[in-house]
Amino acid sequence: MAVSPCDCDLFFRTVSTFHALVVGGFCLYILLYDDAVNADHLWGDPSIVQLNIAITTGYLISDLLLIIYYWRAIGDKFFVIHHLAALYAYYFVLSKGLLAYFGNFRLLAEFSTPFVNQRWFFEVLGYPKSSKANIINGVLMTVVFFMVRIAVIPMYYSRVISSFGSEGFQRLGFAAQSAWIISSVVLDIMNLMWMVKITKGCYKVICLVGQEEAKTHKNGKSD
């Protein structure tokens, strides 16, 4: 039985949202309560983090295969780059137990995913862009995306830089060091690009609502 593009995208978005809630919650728990990982950002005990990243790795691989197979319907080169960059870095966390803190820290970004997917659900259900539900979701999406993907950038890289030159950093080796830095930079460049796009979209919707309210007010006066 053939799967329609809409059904494929529905599955894609549903799994994506479920994955984001699971690993995002797990990520936050680790950052708050896993003393071993938080005490040593480079070589802290990775056992709990590896479980979380294993879930994400399985999701990324399955999602990547789905994107490739249904390329005409849901293909996006930026998602492919995003997934490959993440998998490249997560290999070292899973196979060698390195950089558990930083690998887990990146998963904070997943908290924005449910709002991004919800925008698609509203669109499929026929909600107008100026609807209250769409506006609330759009504003929340913009705020949460900024908080978990952009606002944390200075904190993330300050901890990256503070590790440079340390004994633990030297022990990582060039392969792990390059995978860590390159993947982080690539992912954050993409996050900045997406942030600009999301902000523009949110601004347009808010302006549209303002125009409609002004029009309604004007018509009310005319009557």
Automatic annotation (TrEMBL):
<feature type="transmembrane region" description="Helical">
    <location>
        <begin position="12"/>
        <end position="33"/>
    </location>
</feature>
<feature type="transmembrane region" description="Helical">
    <location>
        <begin position="135"/>
        <end position="157"/>
    </location>
</feature>
<dbReference type="Pfam" id="PF03798">
    <property type="entry name" value="TRAM_LAG1_CLN8"/>
</dbReference>
<dbReference type="InterPro" id="IPR050846">
    <property type="entry name" value="TLCD"/>
</dbReference>
<dbReference type="GO" id="GO:0055088">
    <property type="term" value="P:lipid homeostasis"/>
</dbReference>
<feature type="domain" description="TLC">
    <location>
        <begin position="5"/>
        <end position="207"/>
    </location>
</feature>
<feature type="transmembrane region" description="Helical">
    <location>
        <begin position="178"/>
        <end position="196"/>
    </location>
</feature>
<keyword id="KW-0472">Membrane</keyword>
<dbReference type="GO" id="GO:0016020">
    <property type="term" value="C:membrane"/>
</dbReference>
<dbReference type="InterPro" id="IPR006634">
    <property type="entry name" value="TLC-dom"/>
</dbReference>
<feature type="transmembrane region" description="Helical">
    <location>
        <begin position="78"/>
        <end position="102"/>
    </location>
</feature>
<protein>
    <recommendedName>
        <fullName>TLC domain-containing protein</fullName>
    </recommendedName>
</protein>
<dbReference type="GO" id="GO:0005783">
    <property type="term" value="C:endoplasmic reticulum"/>
</dbReference>
<keyword id="KW-1133">Transmembrane helix</keyword>
<feature type="transmembrane region" description="Helical">
    <location>
        <begin position="53"/>
        <end position="71"/>
    </location>
</feature>
<keyword id="KW-0812">Transmembrane</keyword>
